Amino acid sequence: MEHGDVIEMLDTLYGMISEAWGVPLGNDKCIIEREKALDIINDIKAAMPSSLAEAKRLVAARDEFIGNAKKEAEALRKSSEEKARNMLDEQEIIRVARARSAEMISTAEAKSAELRRIAGDYVDDVMRQAEDSLRSSLETIQSAHSAVRTANGGRTAAVSAAASTASPTQRRERSPEERDFITLQ
User: How many Å apart are CA 98 and CA 101, to the nearest integer?
Assistant: First the structure.
């Protein structure tokens, strides 16, 4: 017999009891056919082991399903926690990398500024030395020029005056030394 048969038999027994005649002066008592009721109860007993076995199998299957679902849920929870930890670790790594990058950029900018300052100071110093050297050379040249003028006396003035009054046809070509000498005056 199947599970549905047991329920039908219980329904039949219930119907028998609910439709039974009541006993006079016994409100909670009734009269039913003993043999028919006992047959139904025996049929229920006979059907019960298979129904109970099916119910036990269903309960075991349900328990196994619930156990598997709990294992999957636990595995999923652990996986999610691990992913969350990894994400936090990655975020921490990114934060540290960004901080380190900012520090490296700041250090590089400071070093670059210092190198620019040092290079500027060096160029300024070289230019000052060049100016001093040129000034010294100019002073030496001017002294030499004055000495040449003094040694030549008034001859340079006369040559200059003659050169400026001479007509273009009377002018002769001057040597490079003479041109340099006249230019220096």
Answer: 5
In the chain, domain spans: 3-75, 153-185
pLDDT band at 9 (very low <50, low <70, confident <90, very high): confident
- Compute, in degrees rounded to 10, the torsion defined by CA atoms 157, 158, 159, 161: 90
Strands 21-23 and 26-31: antiparallel
Q: What are phi and psi of 154, to 5 degrees?
A: -90, 0
Type of residue numbered 105: I
Token pair 């019960």 in the structure block, residue: 48
Mean pLDDT on 61-90: 89
Band (pLDDT 50/70/90 cuts) for residue 169 is low
Residue 35 DSSP code: H
3-state DSSP assignment of residue 26: strand
